[in-house]
Amino acid sequence: MATLTGERHSQAIWRDYLELTKPKVVVLMLITSLVGMFLATRAGVPWTVLVFGNLGIALCAGGAAAVNHVVDRRIDAVMARTHKRPLAEGRVSPAAALTFALALAVAGQAMLLVFTNPLTAWLTLASLLGYAVIYTGFLKRATPQNIVIGGLAGAAPPLLGWVAATGHVSAEPLLLVLIIFAWTPPHFWALAIHRKEEYAKADIPMLPVTHGEHYTKIHILLYTLVLLAVSLMPFVIQMSGLIYLVCALVLGARFLQWAVVLYRGSRPHAAINTFKYSIWYLFLLFIALLVDHYLLLSL
Ligand code: HEM
Ligand SMILES: CC(C)=CCC/C(C)=C/CC/C(C)=C/COP(=O)(O)OP(=O)(O)O
Pocket around ligand 1: residues whose beta carbon is below 6 Å from it? Predict the structure, then answer.
């Protein structure tokens, strides 16, 4: 009995620490960095870069997410969506979480330095600091444009993957970063409309709180149009082929449809459904890039 309770306890601790890393968000980021890596070279990516490069990026992203939990613990405790988080409820102490974050970041940086190249390590460190310090520490509480500027850190993984595989920055991965950069506002503001009251309660200046729902919906619509245009660019610059073009058009048209439905206010739950669709959109778009790349190579 005592062992069972002990086991359950250690499982709960393990789960708390995993939650600090925002695992689902990091998994989607890893898919984008993997695609960045695969698209970078025709010759194939060495397995050490594939495994330790992505692990290094994931550890740094997870470390940044753990810092976000520490800095935001008081506002997380106020919002229904986040009040059960490990630091908000006091199950993990800020000192323990910061030590954990530092360990992840150091391990991640070491992996990138040993198995990839210094440029990948520097760019990953910049993304880590961009999210953990600039977005979380300053922008989030300062301006409703917080997620637009802070979105750059979350958009970086395809570039990190590309640089890990090649050692240099080029136009193609920057285009992939631009796609995620344009995707972030509709992704987040849809959720922010759904959770508007909570952000207001926590005194966080998210766009629906500061400028109202109507203004936010117009901006979601505009960014979705920009996203649709930018998502066609890989075909335009001949980085991707027809399979990608068709997928980008279909996925983008559906995103636009959600943005219009949200704007018109004709359907209940439109905001949360737009948010959920945004995640499927990004996942499927990057899978389309990958499938298109390998089908083109095999022709
Ligand atoms: C500054 C940029 C971003 C902001 C402000 C943001 C905001 C959020 C928020 C607040 C949630 C939580 C929803 C909830 O708890 O129900 C969320 C969920 C999610 N985000 Fe983002 N996000 C950003 C960038 C990204 C990026 C770059 C990715 C991946 C490439 C991503 C992938 C996801 C995924 C997969 C979820 C679902 C997580 C789950 O179900 O637990 N986000 N995002
Ligand atoms: C090295 C690298 C690639 C770093 C990227 C780090 C990273 C995990 C970015 C995630 C973006 C994100 C989920 C923002 C939401 O934060 P929030 O505080 O607004 O949302 P919350 O209220 O759910 O905590």
Answer: 24-25, 28-29, 32, 81, 147, 150-151, 154-155, 180, 184, 187-188, 191, 279, 282
